[in-house]
Amino acid sequence: MVRIVKKPDERRKEIIKAARKLFREKSYADVTMAGLMKSLNIAKGTIYHYFASKEDLLEAVVEDLMAEALEKKQALLKSSRCKEMGALEKFITLVLSGSMVEENEEILESLHQPGNALMHNRLLGSFIIKLAPIYAGIIKEGCAEGVFKTEHPRECAEYLLAGFQFLTDIGFYPWGQDHLARRVQAFPSLIETQLGAPKGSFSFLAGE
Known about the structure:
- The chain is an all-alpha fold.
- The chain is 69% helix and 0% strand.
- Helix 1 (8-25) packs across helix 4, helix 4 packs parallel to helix 9 and helix 6 (87-95) runs antiparallel to helix 9.
- It is elongated and about 60 Å long.
């Protein structure tokens, strides 16, 4: 039987793809390196050459999801439809384009495991830092158009993204529904204030 030799990058991507499927189908506790090796029909030494532990593998999977989410948002803004929009409409379109959490809830739930708290914080911070420039670019456009008013587009984007994520993520703290509802109702006004946007621009976020 001919032994198939794959390039390191190709093999790594193959492992991550298979791991994404397993983390989506099973709970974090039920996913094992042995199970992954079996599904890929690869040797123990092969998988541990790329990932030292299940935690390392989960981190690689989430990083892959983050890169995919960023690519989707960048592609959206480059689309002919978005190019014809003003900054406010672009900003709203980006907000409504969906989030990584909505599409990968089962996988990201693994980050809420007690032993993964530091990884959770690190990955979230990394994602916000990478996502913020995309929103900052739109905010700058809005300032030039006169629809937004802020002297700090990048920092404004970072504060909004970090604030929303932390204050609605029960993985950081088991917020009750009353806490979440109160914050959701306040977000439109807070976003408008930070951006200097017209009143009512983001009222749809509170279901109004």
